[in-house]
Write a structure and sequence with these properties.
Keywords: Cell outer membrane, Membrane, Signal, TonB box, Transmembrane, Transmembrane beta strand, Transport. This protein is mainly β. The chain folds into 2 domains: 66-242 and 350-387 and 435-476 and 537-581 and 616-691 and 729-764 and 805-988, Maltoporin, Chain A (Beta Barrel); 280-341 and 392-425 and 482-529, no CATH class. It has a 22-stranded antiparallel β-barrel. A hairpin with a 2-residue loop joins β17 and β18.
């Protein structure tokens, strides 16, 4: 397990090699004898420690020598962090098998409205980042957005000595959010000297150019009583930009095939409802325009505005009623044909990211073993991504009298006896929307820690107050106001000039646009349709205040050793306020005394939601938390005959201002058996997670669903998803049980460490929502309970909406086991130095999600590789270190899986397809195997040159097909960037 060796000033001469930390076995043990041999960090926590050292175990609040915590913990040490050579330490930790579903710069790039682009946050056990507690030196960190999760990019990364990952419930020790576990970053608070790191990297495809510069300085003053540490870092990651329409990705990447689950719309004809197909062609729109309904259906327009017959896939023929024969009406796709207007490849593969981080700590030893300190952390992270290209619009009604329409088509209108037709376009000539996020964080901590004597016993104390502020701004450029676009597209000839048909729109500056071809709208038209400087924006302020006081000591000597006790209390206040632009948030008259937002009868006033995407809303909320805890460690026996065992127990009472009082507890223990090196451990706990600010008080968020599959009409329509908060939510309750066995450096093979831990987590009252598609589908299937929260009217798509709100409805249950092993050879094959191998694996036996709604069947998501929970995830590392030169080879492996375990696979004689168990013709998603290799050469004890290649064999990601035209990949599991070359230099003076 994770250990922190706190060596006081009178122990300054003790060699760190004698207190080396190894992360394999998952528990910490202090012994009096020195280590037999130096062992690299991050191998096993059962290494001997120096006499008189204090051990702080992240999985517990107990602080005492000789303590073994029952909760497994993996430790990543400074050496492994350096060998992985990442610009963000998050990338190194997220590779651990127990972490599933973490988010970073390569996730969320397809989104306009989430606000989480570039946010680096951890998810343990696939339970989500909101159920993983991330700490900095054991202290809470203000959230980077309203979900409450912090951004690891904002931590002082060069000062991190190690990272402790507690893979078990820790709410009794640390409070809310620690359902999946805890990730604790331990910094070098007494660093002395000057060190730095310079790193550059680039992909094989010439993008994501990265430059990282880090530096840290530390010095002691006043006879080693005053300690000053400062650090700063700058990181610029260019990201991987968008490709083009169709299947063209950024660079020369060629793996995208527009893979989609085609919905036949048939549920009871003996054939599968969904077909796995490449090259899905949306037949409702084309790159520069397509008539998609009426007698002229199938006429498309080239870049010059010339009409031609659209090339439908699947040998499709337009019916004149919006459908296409031989194609998939359930989600409006053909297979093959002209894909030049498909937008899937036009999303960024990785957000560009720029981060600046400044950190300072000053501590003063006001007495022996007692320190008062202040830390300041100021950071900024800016990101940019393109969620999609152009502006896809599939349901426009165009008048045959439109003067921009070629005369040949106007003649065909007259022949057909029609005055209008349905029209769809990707509007490829429009500027591509861009999302910019800017997060600033200010974190201040004042505290004191140390020792004092009372009642004949030494006690440890740790007190701190933290005030954190996050300011988050999101701006979207070149996004369309939908009703203004419709007005600009409806052109007429007036007094010999082409103008907008609506006189009210003309009076407010409407300029006509030619939607038949690749004609770039005029500057005036774009200013009206997509005002660049007044696009969607959201300004959010979050504050966190924490006051914490903890004590620990050994008040009683028992038959087998001292009884250890820890207790404490904590107060926390979380607050947020968000303001958004009037076009998105809505105002009474869209005229907030500003010429930037004039009143406009075409736009929704109080409702807002006028943008094609990025309709942010106004909101605010807060809650307070009062809690206290007590933890004990009781030695049960200690003898050569039966070994040594301890009982560890903790309880915590927490009062939330929003939902009342809830209790968390844990009971566990360890047994060092008389068998050489074998330890048994077990723990069971009741853990809690309180609803966060977003779930309780979320400002209503509107997301555009441009191709929502409407089962009532059997076609894709445009709709708005309204996501709103629920202040009546209650805390989630989890029961977490773990049982493990450890073989820790036995005398007969001291370089070997093994561990096996089984886990079982039951989570009730899960805050969750059904998707918009599920809500509509369940209503369509006859469940009337879902029919009151949406409206779909294809004749007026601006009124289409589906309300999505969280409730304590669901329950989850997941179980599996972790395996960890390492071995170290000294002087392998007679070579100088040592060779170390380490492997970590997590197997998820089941991950059952029960929506808690009548008519909705539970689904086992274990092995569904389009999510976060593969059957197996492995990480293996082999390192040779001669002292002058080191070589590291790393393998990452994800097992094969499915698109979803709810599907019934068949090709013929299929059972009836239902919302719970739809039929499908293919349901296999291949895993992935990646190899990374790196090397370091030490010019001296002070300067090292290093290089690394990630994804050495340039493994392409596997398609993760959905039922829409999005970019069909899963960056949470698969590498989407390709081979990356890294090189840098480290120095330490």
């Amino acid at each position: 397990m994770n250990v922190q060796i706190a060596i006081h000033r009178h122990m300054a001469g003790v060699s760190l090699a004698a207190v080396a930390i190894m992360a394999l076995a998952g528990t910490a043990q202090a012994q009096t004898e020195p280590a037999a041999e130096p062992v690299p960090q991050a191998q096993t926590s059962d290494a001997p420690a120096a006499q008189s050292a204090d051990i702080i175990v992240t999985g517990s609040r107990i602080t005492t020598s000789g303590f073994n915590a029952p909760t497994p913990t993996t430790v990543i040490g400074e050496e492994q962090i350096a060998n992985n050579a990442q610009p963000n330490i998050f990338n190194t930790i997220a590779q651990l098998p127990s972490l599933q579903g973490s988010t970073g710069a390569a996730t969320g790039t397809f989104s306009t409205s989430s606000g989480q682009q570039g946010l680096s946050s951890f998810s343990l056990r696939g339970l989500g980042a909101i159920r993983t507690l991330t700490l900095l030196d054991g202290q809470r960190v203000v959230g980077a957005n309203v979900t409450g999760v912090p951004d690891i990019s904002m931590f002082p990364q060069l000062l991190v000595k190690r990272v402790d990952v507690v893979t078990g419930g820790a709410s009794a020790s640390y409070g809310s959010d620690a359902v999946g576990g805890v990730v604790n970053f331990i910094t070098d608070t007494h660093f002395e000297g000057f060190k730095g790191n310079i790193l550059g990297s680039i992909t094989k495809y010439g993008d994501d150019e990265t430059a990282l510069v880090q530096a840290a300085y530390g010095k002691s003053f006043m006879d080693d009583r005053l300690h000053l540490v400062v650090s700063g870092e700058y990181d610029h990651e260019g990201g991987v930009g968008a490709g083009d329409f169709g299947t063209d990705l950024a660079g020369s990447r060629n793996w995208y095939r527009a893979t989609t689950l085609m919905n036949t719309g048939q549920t009871n004809n003996g054939l599968p409802q969904y077909n796995y197909r490449d090259y899905a062609q949306p037949y409702q729109y084309a790159r520069y325009g397509l008539i998609n309904n009426g007698p002229l259906q199938g006429i498309a327009f080239d870049q010059n505005g010339n009409p031609y017959q659209f090339n439908y896939g699947s040998n499709g023929t337009p019916t004149g009623t919006g459908a296409v024969t031989n194609c998939y009406r359930g989600n409006s796709f053909c297979e093959g044909g002209d894909l030049s207007g498909a937008p899937g490849s036009g999303a960024s593969l990785k957000s560009s990211l720029e981060r600046i981080n400044g950190y300072g700590r000053i501590g003063y030893d006001f007495a022996d073993n007692n320190e008062a300190y202040v830390t300041v952390n100021v950071a900024q992270v800016k990101t940019n991504n393109q969620p999609s290209p152009g502006y896809g619009r599939a349901n426009l009604t165009v008048q045959c009298s439109n003067p921009y329409l070629p005369q040949s088509v106007r003649d065909q209108c007259a022949t057909a006896g029609i005055t209008s037709f349905g029209f769809g376009s990707s509007n490829a000539a429009f500027p591509d929307p861009q999302v910019y996020t800017d997060r600033k964080q200010y974190r201040f901590v004042a505290g004191a820690k140390g020792k004092f004597g009372a009642a004949g016993t030494d006690w440890n104390y740790d007190a701190y107050y933290e005030h954190g502020i996050t300011i988050s701004d999101i701006r979207v450029k070149d996004i369309v106001l939908q009703n203004r676009y419709a007005a600009a597209a409806n052109a007429i000839t007036l007094n010999g000039a082409i103008v907008c048909a609506d006189p009210a729109a003309r009076a407010l500056g409407c300029q006509p646009i030619n939607i038949f071809g690749g004609f770039t709208p005029s500057a005036a038209a774009l200013a009206y349709v997509a005002p660049h400087d007044n696009g969607p924006f959201q300004h959010t302020k979050l504050t966190q205040d924490v006051a914490s006081l903890n004590f620990s000591g050994n008040p009683v000597e028992l038959w087998a050793g001292p009884l250890s006790v820890a207790f404490g209390a904590e107060y926390r206040r979380e607050f947020y306020r968000v303001n958004a632009d009037p076009y998105g948030a809505g105002v009474s008259d869209l005229s907030p005394n500003s010429a930037d937002y004039p009143a406009d009868p075409l736009l929704n006033g109080a409702q807002g939601s006028n943008w094609a995407a990025g309709n942010y809303k106004n909101g605010r909320g807060k809650y307070e938390v009062y809690e206290g805890f007590v933890e004990i460690d009781m030695p049960l026996f200690d003898s050569e005959a039966v070994g040594r065992a301890n009982l560890n127990a903790a309880g915590r009472g927490t009062h939330y201002s929003t939902s009342g009082t809830v209790w968390a507890w844990k009971v566990g223990g360890t047994w060092d058996t008389p068998l050489d090196g074998i330890r048994l451990r077990a723990v069971t706990s009741r853990d809690v997670r309180a609803p966060n600010l977003s779930e309780l008080f979320a400002a209503p968020t509107v997301t555009t669903l441009p191709n929502f599959s409407d089962p009532f009409q059997g076609a894709a329509v445009q709709a708005f998803q309204n996501t709103i908060g629920n202040p009546n939510l209650k805390p989630e309750i989890a029961r977490n049980t773990e049982i493990g066995i450890v073989l820790a450096r036995p005398s007969w093979l001291p370089g070997l460490s093994l561990s096996f831990d089984y886990y079982d987590i039951k989570l009730k009252g899960v805050v969750s929502s059904l998707s918009a598609q599920q809500i509509v589908q369940f209503c369509y299937d006859g469940n009337q309970a879902f029919c009151g929260g949406f409206s779909l009217d294809n004749a007026n798509p601006s009124l289409n909406y589906i309300n999505v709100q969280p409730f304590n409805l669901a329950s989850w249950r997941t179980s599996g086991f972790d395996i960890e092993a390492s071995y170290q050879w000294q002087q392998p094959l007679g070579l100088p130095g040592n060779f170390t191998v380490r492997a970590l694996g997590t197997h998820i036996r089941k991950f059952i999600v029960n929506a808690g709604i009548a008519g909705v069947d539970p689904v086992d998501q274990a092995g569904a590789n389009n999510g976060n929970t593969p059957d197996w995830k492995w990480l293996a590392v082999q390192t040779y270190d001669s002292g002058k030169f080191s070589l590291t080879v790393q393998e990452r492996w994800i097992s094969d899986g499915t698109f979803g375990n709810q599907y019934v696979v068949c090709q013929s004689s299929c059972p009836a397809s239902t919302a719970n168990h739809p039929t499908i013709d293919y349901n296999k998603m291949k895993g992935a195997f990646y190899v990374d290799i790196g090397a370091t050469f030490k010019f001296s004890d002070r300067v090292s040159l290093y290089g690394k290649v990630d994804n050495l064999f340039d493994k392409d990601p596997v398609a993760s097909p959905q039922t829409n035209t999005g970019l069909d990949i899963n960056p949470a599991l698969y590498d989407t960037l390709g081979r990356i070359y890294r090189a840098g230099v480290r120095f330490n003076f």
